[in-house]
Amino acid sequence: MRILRIFFIALLLAGTGGAFAQADDASPAQQIDDLRGQLDQVEKTMKDEHIEDSTIDDLRGKSTGIASDAQKLSSSLQQGRDAAKARLDQLGPAPAAGTKEAPELASARKDAQKAFDAVDAQVKQADAIALEAQQTANQLAELRRTRFQETISRRTNSPLSRPFWSEPAAAFPRDSANLRAFADGVKQDIAESWTAGNRVALITCVLLGLLLMTGVRLYIEHRVRQLTANRMPPGRLRRSALILGIALTSTLTTGLGTQLIYLGLNWNETFSSDTDEVVRALVRLVFFGAFIAGLGRALLSPKRPSWRLPAIPDETADALRRFPMAISLSVVLFVFLRELNRAIGTSLSITVVTTSLQAVVFTTLTAFALLRLGRTHHHDTDGTPPAPRPIWASLFIAAAWIAIAASWIGLLTGFIAFAAFIAGQVVWTAIVIASTYLAMRLVDDLFETLLSEKGPMSARAQAVFGTHPKLLDQAGVLLSGIVRLGLFLFGLTAVVSGFGAGASDILALGGKLQSLKIYNVELKPSQILTSIALFFLGLLAVRVVKNWMSEQYLPRTNLDPGMRSSLTTLLGYVGIVIVVAIALLAMGLSVQNVAWVASALSVGIGFGLQAIVQNFISGLILLAERPVKVGDWVVLDDAEGDIRRINVRATEIQVSDRSTIIVPNSSFITKPVRNMTMANPQGRVLIKLPMPLDCDPVDVRQHMLDAMQGHASVQPTPAPSVTLDNIDRAAMTFAATCYVGSPRDVGNVKSDLLFDIIARLRGADIPLLRPQDLVLRSGGNMGDMIGPTGAGAPKASTDPDPSA
């Protein structure tokens, strides 16, 4: 099963490319000889008839590394060959026969040809090694697939047949004798360890190992709970860190305790090679089994629901609490039996029986766990439906049932290896999913805690870079997504590695996906990642420069605040355009490609994006010509107020009721706009006051002037003035005019002046204009009135007849 190799597959992924890198100080000829020797060794090893699967995977990694190093060497030599070729072309071809030339020129041409031939031969050798190494890797891949298919397709006797049981019974005496001989060897090795003068070391290591697996483990788990509860910031990170701490504590204390016991028994290296190999395998299995048990116990947390990381009910956690330990013991037992069978050389029939038993135990445990899980996923007593499972969980459960059925069918039909493989893959996939889930949750909680609005880095980032807290949250989500993607690919690699595809297959697939060509545009993952990094770094640089200009440089100039805001906004737009251009160039898109894309988009712009482009260009015109700027008081149609912000597409105007009107930028270009503060920021207050005809106009004028001159907001220049605007039969109208510092103050000042003028006029007993009274007088006889009376009025057709 290659537990350790699969468990540490990340190290293999990181090291296959550089394991056979050539030294920088080696000459090209030495590097070629070194690569040839490595490739010959790989080809020699692959011809071994008893080669193991793990060795095949390692050889494939070596072959891929050799091919990569050879290609790099060929690329580095290509420059030298081009230079030698240019030198040779510069000297020209050799003269025709019978033609003399200077000896120096002939000697230089000869040396140039010799140099070109030498470097050309090295390039061809490197290319040949790269091609041969790639072919060798393909052969190894085919050999690995063939062996895997042969293994799982090998058919033996069915458990329903008599030979399945009779053959192990016949081979039992020989196998039991081998087992007794191995057991006697183990006893002798242990006895020799006891009598070899290391009793103190043996007893100490055993006691320390047992103490580490019991008391120390409990103490460390208690300390982990205290640290996560008291030292870590509040949030979900406490739970995920606690679960990870418990899982690692269980793994390390149990595994290290077993390792201490092994060191005590083999203190003076008294174990034989067979005993040492089996015991070492057992120690590694205990490590892995402790990880399985600790991970399952930590994730389920049946006794402490508040610690539980996955969103599963208490009933489900209680029903599944025994399965992690059962699966852990089963994995340790059957993998150890396989190592033991290999060590003592048991018969094929016994190996088939133990493999069948492994398939039965694994599938039975998995089936019982799925049944328990299904029974707990039901409606509550009040009829409330259960929470829906994630799609991936439902798919895994369905695939697990299919795998269990396939395993039992293979077991009953005699395909024992296939049945054991399917059963083992179900368990292995469940372990990988649980580990990946814990890692993803830990990453999410870590970035959420560090890069949240209330996190410890929020205040520092906002002080240093001037970033908005929401932007920090977005960065945390983005980084979390990138790391989660890497963890998902790691888990996928671990799962796929059990199906006969090793890390080399993943690397080969990645090599095929290293270049994607779309409409003559070649896109590479490395260039795309570089482009994304440059884009975000460029945006950060633009933000830093904008903050520096708006807070440091521009306030020290003579520019008004509106102009400073416009310049900062325009700089931001220019910076974003430059950053996007740099990102596109880093992605591999040339200027011609960008022009091609722009021409292709022009059709869409012509049909659907006219308004957006028009507003965008209008916004640039507003920022350049500045007919209006931030802080101006404008009147546009029904909108009147302050300009708060000029964006790319629209401008924000704050009106008197504190609401904001979003006006498209094109309206400021195509419609008449009244800018109250463009040439003169002052506001004019105009008051028209009608007064009775019998009042003294000079006295009224003086009171109005006194009121305006006594107001603190009225500007002395231009001076306030009062004119007699109109006289009619009812009243004479005074027009008072004064100026204030801003049009925004006109309404308030006008109201204050009206209150003050009315108070002054009443205090001086000057009457204000009152509406005319209508007086009706009665007298005389109604008969004297001209016109018909009620009796003499003409009769209508609808009036009743009095004679009737």
Report the uncertain regions: 1-24, 502-514, 782-790
Helix content: 55-70%
Ends distance: 126 Å
Number of strands: 10
Mean pLDDT: 76
Strand order of the largest sheet: 6-5-4-3-7
Described by the principal axes of the CA atoms, the overall outline is elongated
Rg measurement, Å? 46 Å
Helix/strand structural class: alpha+beta
Assembly type of the shown chains?
A: single chain
Quickly count the helices.
24
- Percentage of residues in strands: 5-15%
Biggest sheet descriptor: 5 strands, antiparallel
Q: Would you give an account of this structure?
A:
By secondary structure, this protein is of the alpha+beta class. The protein is 66% helix and 7% strand. The protein has 24 helices and ten strands. The strands form three sheets. The protein has a five-stranded antiparallel β-sheet. It has a three-stranded antiparallel β-sheet with strand order 8-10-9. Strand 5 and strand 6 form a beta hairpin. Helix 4 packs antiparallel against helix 5. The N terminus is likely disordered.
Chain-wise SSE layout:
Blueprint: H1 3-7, H2 9-15, H3 28-46, H4 53-91, H5 103-153, H6 163-195, H7 199-230, H8 237-265, H9 273-300, H10 314-319, H11 323-344, H12 348-376, H13 391-413, H14 416-450, H15 456-465, H16 469-496, H17 503-512, E1 516-518, E2 521-523, H18 525-553, H19 561-587, H20 591-608, H21 610-625, E3 633-636, E4 639-646, E5 650-655, E6 660-664, H22 665-670, E7 674-675, E8 683-691, H23 697-709, E9 721-727, E10 732-740, H24 746-763
Antiparallel strand pairs: 1-2, 3-4, 3-7, 4-5, 5-6, 8-10, 9-10
Helix pairs in contact: 3-4, 3-5, 4-5, 6-12, 7-8, 8-9, 8-14, 9-11, 9-14, 11-12, 12-13, 12-14, 13-14, 14-16, 18-19, 23-24
